[in-house]
Amino acid sequence: MPAITNIKGIGPAKAKLFAQLDLNTVSDLLHYYPRTYQDRRPDAKLSAFKRAESVAGIYTVIRTQSIPAKALLIFKAFLRDDAGNLTEAVWFKKKIRRFDPFMQMRRDFKPDAKLWIIGKRDDKSSFFSNKITVEEYYPVNSAEAKINAGRITPVYSLTQGLTNKFFRAAQFYALSEYLQEEKEVLPPELTQKRNLLNIRQALCAVHFPKSASELESARRRMVYEEFLLMTMAWGIKKRQTVRREKGYHYEIKRTLLSKFKNNLEYTFTKAQVRVINEIFSDMQKSVPMTRLVQGDVGSGKTVVALCAMLLAVENGYQCAFMAPTEILATQHFITLNRYLKGLDVKVKLLTSKTPKKEKENALKYLAEGKTDIVIGTHSLIEDSVKFKNLKLIIVDEQHRFGVKQRAKLRAKAEFTDMLSMTATPIPRTFALAFYGDLDVSTIDQLPPGRQPVQTEHLSETKAFETVRSEAEKGRQAYIVYPLIDESDKLELKAAVQEYERIKRLMPQFKIAMIHGAMKSAEKQKIMEDFLLKKTDILVATPVIEVGIDVKNATVMVIQNAERFGLASLHQLRGRVGRGSEKSYCILVSQHASTVSLERINAICKTGDGFKIGEKDLELRGPGEILGTRQSGDLEFKAGDIIKDKDVLRWAVEDRDWLNADDPLLQKPQHAAFKQRLMELYQKQWNIIDLG
Ligand code: ADP
Ligand code: MG
Fold it and tell me: Measured in angstroms, how far is the CA atom of residue 297 from the centroid of ligand 2?
């Protein structure tokens, strides 16, 4: 790859500035796409003057004037546009002795000279005199004018010391001298099938498009390449996982499973049965399972996971069940113990708050294989946690964990089966494209008798009326306050003050408060009291956001709802409507911005987790949702997986075609594609060479 210093005008000093943008070779430069474009075509209707509006057009110089002032020199030009309108442009420069800062301009702005003027309309313009602030100007027939004016002009994000004018010239030079060295990486069959521009056409058009439609074709082509490479890499990773034999097997003995099913006070929904079967059949395969169970809040994922765990325990293996919060892990511990009453299954809880002595014991039992199931938080990842015979890993609310955390837990033992669960489902195309290494099961049905939660955006007064009337009927309520950082003392203090205020407002009810900074035992006691209906109202921070399951709770009041993300709102709402009683979710907001109102409205309008997932993706971007933000897995240079959904669909289809046609990418026409794939993903994702 030729170094960037091969470009005319880029010496060692300038090269340093380019290096700040990660641009070290000519090819890097060519693949640095514009941030935006300005329409500077001659017929662009920009001269219709409006305040602060961009101006780009050819002007004729009438005359110029230099005005000396105290510390400044002022240079004025009187111009005329094509339509005969008069315009004034003014420049100010600091006086530096003997040096004339306007020397070059005096040469360029000779009377009758024609110039391209690019700038903004000045605020001081009136009907009689247009004033513009000139940002760039180019003599009409100059080489510079060809690059910077009279066309759709690229605008790049740059660093201090680089101007767009200089950058465009560099880009133009790179395109005219080095374009031939850019190799096509896309398989020719696919460029043809999708009727895509080739790489050279596309690069030219991305930087210097001849028309808006040419630009769009070029952009789509770059996006397609990006998506295809990414989704291909996922696919290869999946094949590599699948190829490994795990070397142990399961037998459905029913020693535990039957007893458990008989103890259960309800029957599984059809969707649960289907998903349990999918999981069992995966576990019985000779290669490790990597399965994601998605199901809306309240769809009953916990028992599904429990069935998988019981199958493992029946076969003498250990399981780890990881949840994102201590409260949720504790609740799972309580639930599992209840479900498993009378069964010979040993369950332990392990969180960062587990007392030292207990923790040491738990670790010992785990290592000796005396514990069958360990439930915990991130603390399960710690090095001190060792297993004798770990075979099954369950990650609840998997979107709350990063890729690395999940991978680290999995690395605790070789060839483990992995089951992840989420209530923030991702649309199918994204699942296909970016969860390529996962199989997805969907619980698309709620247990019978559930009613949709009535969701409204109301005043606090109205919200508390509902709390009162429901509590009088013997039901329970949550009132949640935002606490972005559970260790933030000021915010916590405010929440505690609110708790005191609510107690004064509703003295007839038993009210408790729970937050993250409390001692473990205290939290456990408060949750148990609420579950056993010793308290009516629970004032809480978002520590209760996920997983909490109290059937008798029918009201969820979310204070400062504008501060919660869409997924959080949906999760919080999911804490009610878990029994057969009608439930309410009331959002109370303070100073909601347009975006937060959009979130609040979306939540009020739909209860469908899939739709919410899609909207969330749109409002927040994919990285956060897929839980991969930390690893930077999903950053695209050109593509936007929302706007370019249809391109993504192509990429997924074509990946499948490639996998069928030439899975190892051995055909000569796929060599360049393979090479680029390896360059991009081999190291990052630990992809073994395709061979
Ligand atoms: P989530 O999918 O949100 O994790 P949970 O596993 O917490 O949901 O289940 C929500 C509630 O539904 C629990 O109280 C659970 O006991 C109950 N439940 C699960 N499956 C069924 C079923 N088939 N019939 C009735 N209730 C069920
Ligand atoms: Mg759950």
Answer: 7
Q: Which of these, 372, 259, 363, 261, lies nearest to 313 by C-alpha position?
A: 372
Residues 481 and 435 reside in one and the same domain: no
**Residue 568: domain span:** 453-606
Q: Ligand 1: does its nearest atom lie under 6 Å from the Cβ of 553?
A: no
Of 245, 388, 324, which is closest to residue 567 (Cα–Cα)? 324
Residue for token pair 């521009």: 197
Determine the atom of ligand 1 nearest the C-alpha atom of 268: 23
Q: Cβ(578) to ligand 1 under 6 A?
A: yes
Which ligand is nearest to the Cα of residue 551, counting in written order? 1
Together in a domain, 552 and 485: yes
* Residue at 676 is within a domain: no
pLDDT digits (tens, 9 = 90+) for 532-585: 999 999 999 887 777 788 999 999 999 999 988 887 888 899 999 988 899 999
Top mutation candidate among 303, 307, 328, 335 for ligand 1, by most atoms within 8 Å of CB: 303
- Residues 496-522 as b/e (b if ≥16 CB within 10 A, e otherwise) read eeebeebbeebeebbbbbbbbebebee
Looking at the CA of 302, name the nearest ligand.
Answer: 1
Q: Predicted confidence band at 487 (pLDDT cuts at 50, 70, 90)?
A: low
Q: What is the mean pLDDT of residues 592-614?
A: 84
pLDDT tens digits, 347-378: 999 988 888 899 999 999 999 999 999 999 99
pLDDT band at 280 (very low <50, low <70, confident <90, very high): very high
Best residue for ligand 1 mutational test, from 302, 400, 421 (most atoms within 8 Å of Cβ) = 302
Kindly state the average pLDDT of the residues 143-150. Answer: 92
Comparing CA positions, the residue from 535, 555, 399 lying closest to residue 480 is: 555
Give ion ligand 2 contacts, CB < 5 A. Answer: 547
